[in-house]
Amino acid sequence: MAVSTMDRTKPLVGRQSLPLLALSTLISTILLVAMGSIVRVTGYGLGCPDWPLCYGRVIPPALTGAWMEFTHRLIGAATSLQIVLLGVLAWRRYRNRPWIFRPAVAAVGLLVIQAVLGGLHVIFEIPPLTGWIHTALAMLIVGLVAIPLAHASPALPAIRGRGEEASPSRAFVAWVSGTAVATYLLLLTGSYVTRSGASLACPSFPLCGVPVENSLTLIQMLHRYVAFGVAFLALVLVAWLVIGQTDRRLVRLAYGLGALLLVQ
């Protein structure tokens, strides 16, 4: 009888391993992006002037900048390992589920490109374009890791089990996709604003406050226009979820999205 119980437990453990690994990978990836932003904003991007070592050493010297960048690299190593494990798990067990398999494997491919760009970023003393692409790829990896987590979530079968009424319409899927793409563009324009020095190009809000006639004010206002568009798309999405969905988890997600929008 005990053997039978163990046999029934193994599939359950297998089903739980991907959501847990995907969640851990997503959290780690977001932490890595946040740490990378801190390193960039504080000016410690060259805290370690070489790569993959730091000042030619495995353990960096007792310098603030060196340890900031070294911590960023340590988080990157831990995150990379998790992304690879997620890709291997998806390859072995979920090749018949494309919304889990393809994003997980694609994340591994982007990880390789990201590692090469990270090295070039340091070796060539952080060219602005390379750094911007580095940020763009990082956010793509965040999205790719989030997709398997969403499709492997235990909540998904429960929502789908409600029948056709719970199935999202094409219009809803298109709106969510458009919001995701617009949010990605917002992140890219925001990154370009900080890298180009246009953060304070417009002294007032929501209008610029000065004539928009140079590159810095144009960059700043472009970012604001994209932000206004994302705010509109997100607010409609929140209302859509609250009014049209009865699943409490989706409603809580909608309220959380609205709260994040207000904070941002």
Would you tell me the overall average pLDDT? 82
Estimated structural class:
mainly alpha
Largest sheet: none
Task: Tell me the fraction of residues in β-strands, as a range.
Answer: under 5%
- Rg, Å, rounded: 22 Å
Strand elements, count: 0
Number of helices: 8
| Silhouette | flat
Terminal CA distance: 55 Å
What letter string, H or E per element, gives the SSE order? HHHHHHHH
Helicity range:
over 70%
- Could you name the ranges where pLDDT drops below 50 across 5 or more consecutive residues? 1-13
In the residues, how many domains can be counted? 2
Features:
264 residues, mainly alpha
Structural write-up:
It is a single chain. The longest helix has about 40 residues. The protein has 2 domains: about 140 residues, no CATH class; about 110 residues, no CATH class. The N terminus is likely disordered. Helix 3 packs antiparallel against helix 4, helix 4 packs antiparallel against helix 6 and helix 7 packs antiparallel against helix 8. The protein contains 8 helices and no strands. It is about 75% helix and about 0% strand. The protein is mainly α and about 260 residues long. About 20% of the residues are buried.
List the helices and strands and how they pair.
Blueprint: H1 2-41, H2 64-93, H3 98-123, H4 128-152, H5 155-160, H6 170-196, H7 215-244, H8 248-263
Helix pairs in contact: 1-2, 1-4, 2-3, 3-4, 4-6, 6-7, 7-8
